[in-house]
Amino acid sequence: MGMDRRTFLKGLGTGIAVAGPGSSLLPGRLEAKEVVASKEFMGVLVDTTRCIGCRSCELACAEAHALPVPDISDASALDKIRQTSVTQWTLVNRYQTEKGEVFAKKQCMHCNQPGCVAACLVKAMQKREDGAVTWDTNCMGCRYCMISCPFDIPKFEYDSAFPKIQKCSLCWERLQKGEKPTCVEACPAEALAFDSRRELIEEANRRIYKESGKYISHIYGEREVGGTGYLYISAVPFEQIGFRTDLGTTAYPELSKGFLYSVPIVLLLWPAFLIGVNTITKRKDEVQRREGGKK
Amino acid sequence: MNTVIAEEEKRELKDIVAFIRSELKPKGKLLTPFNLISAPIILLGVLLILYRLARGMGAVTNLSQEFPWGIWIGFDVMVGVAFAGGAYVLTFVVYILRSDKYHSIIRATVLNGLLAYVFYAGAIFLDLGRWWNITNPLWGNKFGVNSVLFLIAWHFLLYMLAEFVEFSPAIAEWLGLRKLRKILGSLTVGAVIVGIALSTLHQAGLGALFMMAKGKVHPLWYTEFIPVLFFVSSIFAGLSMVIFEGTISHRVFSDKISHEDHAAYDDMLIGLSQGCAVAMFVYFFAQFLILIHGWHWALLNTPMGYWYLTEMVGLVAIPCFMFFQGARYRNMLLIRTAAILAMIGIIVNRLNISIIAFKWWVPFSERYFPSWMEIVITLAIILTEIWVFRWIVNRMPVFGKPPAWAEETHQ
User: Fold this and answer.
1) What are the domain boundaries of chain B?
2) Of B142, B189, B213, the CB nearest to A147
3) CATH number of the domain at A33-255, please?
4) H-type alpha helices, A108-256
5) What pTM was estimated for this model as a whole?
6) Where are chain A's structural domains?
7) What is the pLDDT of residues B227-236, one digit of tens each?
8) With contact defined as beta carbons under 8 Å apart, do B204 and B232 qualify?
């Protein structure tokens, strides 16, 4: 039954996508789209109950993207909560929770409708057909993507005269070759699973139902900020493992949509109104002058 | 026949070039206290800008991954553009409503607006990490039309053109180009209408930039109505700036302003003051409604709440009341003080949204505070703008009357 509804919605989405180009000048393209060009968004399911904090993903990521290679045998890195950086696109944090130590991987969430993509005025930030959110060099370095990212993921190279935005790309170059993201491949504990977002949500639900009591009944990223490519399941409430749970389910581009919709209206009506007022005052001026002349 | 005209024009062009060359030379004393203070700051600013371009943003600014926007955006652009709002408000009053009362200050206001956009919106250039890509939003297939910033970029550019057209008759009068003056003069109303529409949208747009900073801007400041608030506040921000700038100009350039203008000036100030008072009242009332509808009462009794009340009462309600009283009792000092308070209120509001109430939970030690270099560069930009303003005012008919031959075509 659920499948049927999904298929229906998918069809509807494609219909909207086809109807889209006709109105491409309007911000209507912000509409939720799970399907772009009939491809499904791919994603990664992170099972935080399986993560052992070995940081193999950090190592694999650094090697794949020519970033400084971290020393993963040094466990002291886990002593404090870290943020991703220009040289670290993904990392694992250790949290003390009501159920003891829990590890959680952090990286770009690859939102379905990313704030950073809507923010970018030159389309340097892009949502790719397969779901990856990537950055390109036509970027102006305005850092509006950083302001607009609910997860504070894009990182800027302040110390370079030729700075780039650095963030996880879901190994987009590997996805095109049909390979999995390198972190998923490197995970020895099967804490990471790569698949279509739809399959991953099924799988996450399966795990939650099957081992009742092991997980809390929530998939982080299923609905948060309109849905994300990275999905998390956990044994403890997500606040305890460093997630913001106050972000809501509205996709971030929707937040500035109201303003953008008002733009064509203002540009049409405002000048028309001003021309009208201008004409009236002109007439008034002329009448005054004529009457003044009569005297 | 044609060759004669061409010859004439050629000679005219030669004369104009010679005239411009003579005008380029400084007029008046060079060693004034203002010059002695501002020149070294501008020079240092230029050096720091070069250093920033060579070594990257981090060498000069205190920006961080947590705080990607500092005073170059929060102050230079956000506040600079709000203060420049006087141009669109006054052109509306003068050219659309045809109120002659404000005609004598329209050129100075438009010039101020134009220069504010050139310099303060131009400050975006410094803030762009990859500045060599600055023209990307203008061409190619890389139009990020879903971005509020895309709209702002285009609007800044188009608005600068509109303001240039509005001011251009003064340039034609300066150069003695009668025909051109006539053509440019006929474009004014069109430019005004376009300019007002553009201003409405990008003044609001600067606020709309923060729509996607939901969860980062303190709930007392974050509302879906930020764009509306930015627009309304730009009205009194601009008018307060006109009052403030006029007060200074009338002292500095008093030789250029005729006596009747001095006399009519008080009436004008009172009118501007009434405009400010009404706009501020609308703004304050909107803020009040938003506060009530947001159910944020409990937040008022926190340190950020006190700061919010300081802004809303001390820097909005009180100057609003002062404007009302000043206009009622013709108290110029009260009006001028209110203008300064209102301007401080705008600075505080824009900085709150972009920096101070932005990620308010970050402890003080990790917060962004501008480096001395960011401040010097900002000062250098402001001072350079004043230099250019002075250069133009001393040469073109801005405060004074246009030449007699242009009078008849004058709107």
Assistant:
1) 37-403
2) B213
3) 3.30.70.20
4) 115-119, 144-148, 172-176, 182-186, 197-210, 252-255
5) 0.89
6) 33-255, 256-295
7) 999 999 999 9
8) no
